[in-house]
Specification:
Elements lengths: L14 H11 L4 E7 L2 E6 H17 L7 E5 L4 H11 L4 E4 L6 H11 L3 E4 L4 H9 L10 E4 L4 H13 L15 E6 L9 E5 H14 L6 E3 L6 H14 L3 E3 L6 H8 L3 E4 L1 H17 L3 H15 L6 H4 L1 H5 L7 E4 L6 H10 L2 E7 L6 E4 L12 E2 L4 E5 L7 E6 L6 E2 L3 H6 L1 E2 L2 E10 L5 E6 L4 E2 L5 E2 L1 H8 L5 E8 L5 E7 L6 H16 L10 E5 L13 H8 L1
Parallel strand pairs: 1-10, 3-4, 3-5, 5-6, 9-10, 11-12, 12-13, 25-26
Antiparallel strand pairs: 1-2, 7-8, 8-18, 13-14, 14-15, 16-17, 17-20, 19-20, 20-21, 22-23, 24-25
């Protein structure tokens, strides 16, 4: 395993550069596709550019210009993407909203952001129609409520007519790459969300630099919710750089259907999806009574690969067919992934590349390379990005800090939080980790989650969760400290398992076995079993502040 030259990639500096270059280079090729009912819809790169210009011109015509804040909410869709690009490439500011938020939280974010318009999918019409009717009473600054299904087709048509009649303000708008183009509200596992201000330079740089070090190429399926920066940078933008197709999944029920339809070469996911795919594979194998055979094939395949013969696509073609037959790479981020999954997917011929990111860094900071990676590491820093470990402890770990063009401009309307987030010109991630001599970054925990024992020792719950999560039938786990200086492991057992009492005994025994190989101060003292899943963010991370509330 060795380092090697970076890949060459288009030197885009903003989102408009990216869209126009794609339209010029491959005008008739499908940029985005999606299925509605039995029909699959296709939009070419040229059509995407023209639709952005039409919608952006419409926004200008109704007074949305010069930094107007336009909120967008709904399931993943072509119209969602158009809204984002039409705002971010015309000098306005797009505010993506989490579609799973309750009405009270949506109202707070609309007020907090000062949104002047909101574009929403028809599924949320009742909520926003209610807001519109009570706009003044609710003290909202929104002057335009735009329903994607009802209003956007007409808006596109009006915008296109204006362009044909000579309206060119939007098209000729000169983008300042350093101006804020989006405010992204963090999902927050540890408390209230903050509005992260990102620029065109931030957004384009993180994807461009990631594609320099990782060969994440070909068609893909967008499965993660678009209001997060991770799927936008890792699913939406790479096809624009590589002139490939992004198939838009709007409903989790249809993920596998859309994957089989689109036949992607790569997918951007979080560990929950990897675990779900893995479970589905082995369920099918066991139903067919071929588990022992498959494991023997792993051994045979591994042996002949040592001699340069790779027959994985032939030997495991049935497995690969479930993912469309062309899947080569899974990019996993958002949480640690157990080594077991990386190894087993490699047996099937699917490489998993783990990365590390944070919304405030647009979000990708580090990524493993296809031929330069390490188990347990989240990769090397992106080119042109600096990573430094501050306040290093005796074990070599400290706070991970980042500097470069991917770092946010600050938190919206929160100068104190912005000040606290920086050490000079270094952004403080709040994550704890270390770097090895090869430049690989390892995450050991989150600063806010650290359990400080009575003896002064620090314990990172994520480390223990990683060790305990591999226990069979443990569906979800959270480790935290209680007021009595005990380390608690709270466990949700796979609900499909019937004999819970027996499973609890087995799991407890295995936790004790793992404890024996840990220093005394890191050992789990209490085990709690729960009947329902943990409360999670929309990126499927457990809300730790809810655990704190429960134990308080």
């Amino acid at each position: 395993m060795k380092n090697y030259p970076y890949y060459k990639i288009f030197e885009a500096t903003n989102l408009r550069d990216l869209v126009r270059r794609a339209a010029d280079a491959a005008p008739a090729k499908t940029a985005y596709a999606y299925q509605l009912g039995e029909r699959i819809h296709h939009h070419t790169f040229l059509q995407f550019k023209d639709d952005i210009e039409s919608l952006g011109t419409f926004f200008y015509s109704i007074g949305l210009r010069d930094g107007a804040k336009i909120a967008v909410m709904g399931e993943n869709s072509y119209y969602w993407l158009l809204t984002y690009f039409a705002a971010a490439t015309g000098g306005n500011i797009i505010v993506p909203l989490d579609k799973e938020l309750p009405a009270e939280d949506l109202l707070h974010l609309l007020r907090e952001s000062g949104a002047e318009a909101v574009v929403y999918s028809d599924d949320y019409a009742d909520t926003f129609d209610s807001f519109s009717e009570n706009n003044r009473k609710l003290k909202l600054s929104v002057s335009h409520y735009i329903n994607m299904k009802r209003d956007l087709p007409l808006a596109l048509s009006k915008g296109a007519s204006l362009v044909l009649s000579g309206a060119r303000d939007f098209i000729y708008h000169e983008i300042n790459n350093d101006n804020v183009c989006t405010i992204v509200y963090t999902s927050g596992t540890t408390g209230l969300s903050k509005g992260v201000m990102l620029t065109n330079k931030n957004i384009v740089t993180t994807t461009r630099e990631a594609l320099r070090i990782a060969w994440v190429y070909g068609d893909t399926v967008l499965v993660l919710p678009l209001h997060h920066t991770y799927p936008f940078s890792a699913s939406v933008l790479p096809p624009l750089f590589h002139l490939s197709t992004c198939f838009i999944n709007s409903n989790l029920k249809h993920v596998l259907r859309d994957i089989q339809t689109a036949k992607p070469q790569f997918l951007c996911v979080v560990p929950l999806y990897v675990e779900s795919f893995h479970k589905k594979i082995w369920e099918n194998v066991r139903k067919q009574g071929k588990e022992k055979l498959l494991r023997k094939m792993f051994t045979v395949s591994g042996s002949i690969r040592k001699f340069g013969v790779d027959l994985r696509k032939v030997m495991f073609g049935t497995v690969l067919k479930a993912f469309g037959g062309k899947l080569e790479t899974l990019v996993s981020g958002g949480a640690p992934l157990n080594k077991q999954y990386i190894d087993e997917f490699a047996h099937f011929g699917i490489q998993i590349l783990e990365g590390y990111g944070i919304t405030e860094c647009s979000p990708i900071v580090a990524l493993n390379r296809n031929k330069f990676w390490k188990h347990g590491a989240v990769g090397i820093a992106l080119p042109s990005v600096e990573v430094k470990i501050f306040d290093v402890d005796k074990e070599g770990a400290g706070e991970i800090c980042v500097r470069g063009d991917i770092v946010m401009k600050g938190y919206y309307n929160n100068p104190q939080a912005t000040k606290d987030a920086f050490n000079g010109d270094w952004f403080r991630t709040g994550d704890i980790g270390y770097m090895d001599d090869d430049g690989f970054v390892f995450i050991t925990g989150r600063q806010k989650n650290v359990i400080i024992r009575a003896n002064g020792k620090n314990v990172h719950p994520e480390e223990l969760e990683g060790k305990l999560s591999v226990i069979e039938h443990v569906k979800e786990i959270a480790v935290y400290g209680d007021d009595g200086d005990d380390i608690v492991a709270e466990i949700f057992i796979d609900p499909e398992q019937k004999d819970r009492k027996q499973l609890e005994k087995i799991i407890t025994k295995k936790v004790k076995m793992i404890n024996e190989n840990l220093p005394i101060y890191k050992r789990v003292n209490k085990i709690k079993f729960r009947d329902i899943e943990f409360d999670k963010t929309t990126t499927k991370k457990i809300k730790r502040y809810n655990l704190k509330k429960m134990k308080d």
